[in-house]
Amino acid sequence: MSASGEGVVERRDAIPGLPAPTGPFVWTAAWGDLLFVSGLRGIDPATGALAPTDEERAELIFAHLARALEAGGSSLRHVLSTRVYVTEMARHRPIVNAAYERAFGDALPTRTIVEVRALNQGDTIEVEAVAGRIRPSE
Questions:
Q1: What does the pLDDT look like over 72-131, one tens digit per residue?
Q2: Of 124, 122, 102, 103, nearest to 113 (Cα)?
Q3: In whole angstroms, what is the distance from residue 82 CA to residue 47 CA?
Q4: Where are the alpha helices (DSSP H) in 29-137?
Q5: 77 close to 112: Cβ distance less than 8 angstroms
């Protein structure tokens, strides 16, 4: 990071292909070589509605994550850690595991998965992430 960039936080509240945030937050915040991605859910940006199935939601979440990462100067291969929230562990963990392996392949980040009582708008799965930003030589 250059001396002129120290302490600068870059925030993005609009990312092409992602629905508008559903509250007072930004999709990504970057500081130095780190990119923080807000919790993403399986919302269809064209309709603003949740995808109809948990499997479709999980796939959409990781597609949204890839877009958010790219907009912030990162990629799925540079994700360091994720936090996954599900409303029913026994039902959602296998769905998340399958989508996670498709999204990250052999570049698996650390992960915490937590069962919660409820998510916004009656959703069932939400994923947030922290990633390293790609340096020009990468």
A1: 999 999 999 999 999 999 999 999 999 999 999 999 999 999 999 999 999 999 999 999
A2: 124
A3: 26
A4: 54-71, 89-104
A5: no
